[in-house]
């Protein structure tokens, strides 16, 4: 059973058009929705969602990701192969950085521009919905074993993207918000190994000026109390036990986080 | 792999009961959610969702659609076959117009009243949830090749439905809102070919008294600026780049849209 | 096609990690989302969702349910087999009562503690996401026919849970709210057979001091009017035709409902 994942900012209804197109080309595809709730034009946020999930998908998975404010303009369409030989996954989406962190995480990234019209929707290409007209059909063809080398020319000047800077500056650990989940948990770009160099479980720290304990799991803070932990994504996360940290800390994607051990 | 789509106003939880029933009858069915977010009793809105997606589904797809304010009353249950010979799709749902625009779009519509109790849920028919008790099992049987002619008698006096009037009246192009998507993009009933007779890309127009450019894609308007375009459904659409046009224009399903070329 | 259902309070994104893990272990699994919208830590609410749907799923279904405020603490992980011989279903989730009402409904409940590390995620067990790291992979293995007896030792001292008390007290029928659906329909713990002993369709009753008719289906009350009925779950339900009863009656999970026949 070939597996295709979808990551978009399309909300409701439009993802079904992508699925119809995919299943028309590959009726045996299994489709997994990663999310359709990325903020409109939230490229970095979508890139993080894909990046955080990609290690859990099996080899040969085709990830179709469409957060695409440039749809209908001259931005290119890309297909990417990444991963160790025999253990590759594929990525299809716009050339705006969206696919890059996830593919780079797997290693051995090969990037191709999609120019082969035979792989696109037969009934025509709209100016506004390349998810349906280009990315879904190309993903479906890849899931049937179509060679990624034949989607178009290999390119090296694709748009790059990272999750921003983080680090240690004297008594401070700093970083940025990359994602707020549907509960308002705030996920930063500071990886576990950097956090654990800086402080230990049980440490009291100040997060953006507010006292917060560093714990191993949500239930170890009181109801309604803030906490920081290493989230299931492997990054430092700010949460409120039973509450919304994004609102209470006034943090959204791109927001600065500064931590000081007390 | 037989394909079944679902279109309902059921929100969360209840669609899973339909899926359980379908997969109990046809474990090989692939199920695609078109949407479960239709407004309660929004028959025309649901009809539009189905209508707009049906061209993208492969032959033999069975569309189960349930926006059903008359559930438990005397309204009939229908199964419909439509499309060119060898390329048919099937529709199952209440007799309130919901299925008609999509089926008519495919042509060769044959409409049957569902009366065959053998196709319904064995454990009983509730008064409130025919989606689970009648429409899901009938759809599952059709997806296994059960002949649509055997669900019950053919009928010709089914409830009809269209998307309302539109047209050109002197210097005005007018129509109605049929759907607001989850971003607040407002989709009208005015088809592309009528729009393109009336004005061209780059035209400045007035939409309900407000100046708006007619462009080819969202990114061609400034951030926060209104625009009109031919949406991916093939209809005139009113949008705000990065905003909610339904709110800003005060338009909901059934609302009047009047456009004047400046 | 082996069938796996998911019931969680995970909202968006996290369910996809569970699906990736499941399909990596059993690529042929069909996955049905029951809901990912349970209130955070709403164990009883999640238990009701699973309980209400379980009769509609076919034999051999594996239900993975994760509403798990105790994740990362010492609470045990369970796998349960239930149902008549040859017609069993399976349940995987935390030992907090979540699985019990659904499994007990099927009868012949056998409960096992999951201790077999071979069934868990190879790349490590996080402190915060046992849905992905333990419950999803165990469910996937069960869906491939792995014997439930081999997940770990059988236990009898699992955490129990019921839907609270209800009954008749003189002129009053009383019970509790167990679930509010996405429309604000309020589902009580009072079963159909108890309701029908107390009053009949067409009865006028007082619900928490407010006059409400008892009808067979939503459309039999006026637009915007309250009603009570036997919902599709087989329990007394309070609704507003086209409105939100949970808000209008000020009722949430655990709220008391008192009914008096007028």
Question: What attributes characterize this protein structure?
Answer:
homotrimer; 29% strand; Elongation Factor Tu (Ef-tu), domain 3; six-stranded mixed sheet; Rossmann fold; alpha+beta; eight-stranded antiparallel sheet; 2 domains; 262 residues
- The CATH topology of the largest domain in chain A turns out to be Rossmann fold
Mean of pLDDT of chain A = 95
User: CATH homologous superfamily of the largest domain in chain A?
Assistant: S-adenosyl-l-methionine hydroxide adenosyltransferase, N-terminal
Topology order of chain A in helix (H) and strand (E) letters: EHEHEEEHEHEEEHEEEEHE
Any idea of the CATH class of the largest domain in chain A?
Alpha Beta
Description:
The structure is a homotrimer of 262-residue chains. The first copy, chain A, has 262 residues and is of the alpha+beta class. Chain A has 2 domains: 3-150, Rossmann fold, CATH 3.40.50.10790; 167-261, Bacterial fluorinating enzyme like (Elongation Factor Tu (Ef-tu), domain 3, Beta Barrel). Helix content of chain A is 21%, strand content 29%. Chain A is built from 6 helices and 14 strands. In chain A, strands 7, 8, 9, 10, 11, 12, 13 and 14 form an 8-stranded antiparallel sheet that branches. A 6-stranded mixed sheet of chain A has the order 2-1-3-5-4-6, sandwiched between helices. Chain A is elongated. Chains B and C meet through helix 1 of B and strand 2 and helix 2 of C.
């Amino acid at each position: 059973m070939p597996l295709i994942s979808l990551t978009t900012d399309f909300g409701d209804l439009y993802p079904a058009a992508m699925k119809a197109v995919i299943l028309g080309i590959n009726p045996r595809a299994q489709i997994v929705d990663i999310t359709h709730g990325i903020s409109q034009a939230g490229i970095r946020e979508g890139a993080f969602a894909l990046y955080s999930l990609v290690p859990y998908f099996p080899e040969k998975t085709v990830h179709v990701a469409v957060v695409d404010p440039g749809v209908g303009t001259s931005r290119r369409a890309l297909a990417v192969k990444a991963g160790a030989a025999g253990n590759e996954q594929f990525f299809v989406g716009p050339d705006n950085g969206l696919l890059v962190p996830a593919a780079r995480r797997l290693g051995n990234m090969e990037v191709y521009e999609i120019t082969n019209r035979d792989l696109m929707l037969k009934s025509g290409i709209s100016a506004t919905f390349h998810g349906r007209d280009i990315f879904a059909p190309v993903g479906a063809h890849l899931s049937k074993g179509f060679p990624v080398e034949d989607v178009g020319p290999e390119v090296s000047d694709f748009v790059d993207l990272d999750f921003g800077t983080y680090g240690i500056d004297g008594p401070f650990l700093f970083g940025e918000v990359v994602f707020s989940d549907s509960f308002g948990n705030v996920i930063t770009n500071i990886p576990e190994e950097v956090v654990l160099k800086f402080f230990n479980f049980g440490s009291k720290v100040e997060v953006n000026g507010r006292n917060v304990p560093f714990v191993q799991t949500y239930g170890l803070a009181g109801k309604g109390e803030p906490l920081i932990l290493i989230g299931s994504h492997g990054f430092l996360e700010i949460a409120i036990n039973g509450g919304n940290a994004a609102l209470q800390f006034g943090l959204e994607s791109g927001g600065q986080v500064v931590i000081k051990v007390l």
